[in-house]
Amino acid sequence: MLNAQHWPVIIxxxxxxNNASLIEDYDNGYLLGNWNYKTxxxxxxxWIVKTDINGDLLWDKTFGDGVYAMGFSDVKRNxxxxxxxxxxxxxxxxxxxxxxxxxKLNVCGEVEWCTVLHKxxxxxxxxxxxxxxxxxxxxxxxxxxxxxQYQTIRISLVRMDAYGEPLWIQHLAQGDTTIFNExxxxxxxxxxxxxLVAGHCYSSGLKAFFIMxxxxxxxIWDLKWNNQNVQxxxxxxxxxxxxxxxxxSGGGKYGFYTHPVLFKFDGDGNELxxxxxxxxxxxxxxxxxxxxxxxxxxxIGYNYGTNSNxxxxxxxxxxxxxxxxxxxxxxxxxxxxxxxNIIKTF
Length: 346
Hints:
Layout: E1 16-24, E2 30-39, E3 42-51, E4 57-63, E5 70-77, E6 83-89, E7 99-105, E8 111-116, E9 127-133, E10 139-144, E11 155-160, E12 166-171, E13 180-189, E14 195-202, E15 206-213, E16 219-224, E17 233-242, E18 245-254, E19 257-266, E20 271-276, E21 285-292, E22 297-304, E23 314-321, E24 326-331
Antiparallel strand pairs: 1-2, 2-3, 3-4, 5-6, 6-7, 7-8, 9-10, 10-11, 11-12, 13-14, 14-15, 15-16, 17-18, 18-19, 19-20, 21-22, 22-23, 23-24
């Protein structure tokens, strides 16, 4: 939580943008990846922003020609201090039909390589959601809706070498006929170097959904959150605290309304507990960003409502313990939606 009088900082003027990714950079400044919107429904630029430690703009760079749709979902620094990006681009077939995009920029912000996973016959939007560097210098990426079978292939992993060349693509959640309309929102590499995907699926209702795979993308287990007290659920972020202990943030329906929820499970896919962060009397809400602060505390962002207004007009960040008890919280200026990212600064 930032208490300096310099904050908050607003970057840009007279633009419509959605910040999808935020990291602390090598100089303790910040690096942001964004979608810039030409209209409320149409993105035309991917936008990288670099700030100093106070949030003041150092440089920014847009990608795209303003004609075809383009945007960035995940931005990271890799081990050689380059910038790697996951996003989407509508350059092929139809400017309104997006394909997964992965980029690497050198330290000067120049493109080293660009990989677009274009699928002939695809008539809808496919997205690059996450990118994570692997120990051998390659990358694992998370794809959404890649291909032409949107009803059955909705979550995929792509393994790339250090130059962005795809080595394999694995479609997940293909062996369980009890699930449908699955969605993935986060991907991490675990301490055991396996891949963990988090999101939701429909299986006798909306369920928080996790898939663990090995290093070849083969599924080891999946977890459809089945606690009877959570009538439906979804997950936005997942982190690993200790070897094989995971926490996730999202929403869980209790009674008629969805509430901000913390989930905990182990490395074998066993549910350990869930916690309604703000009790069971809210009129809607959910949690999104999640970060590990110490061995005993987490930071989480959420929104919630106390009346039947569907906008859930309170947005907060909070420090919680590992049982989901709120230690401290702060109301944000933004209303109606949770913050998109939380990071621990050093």
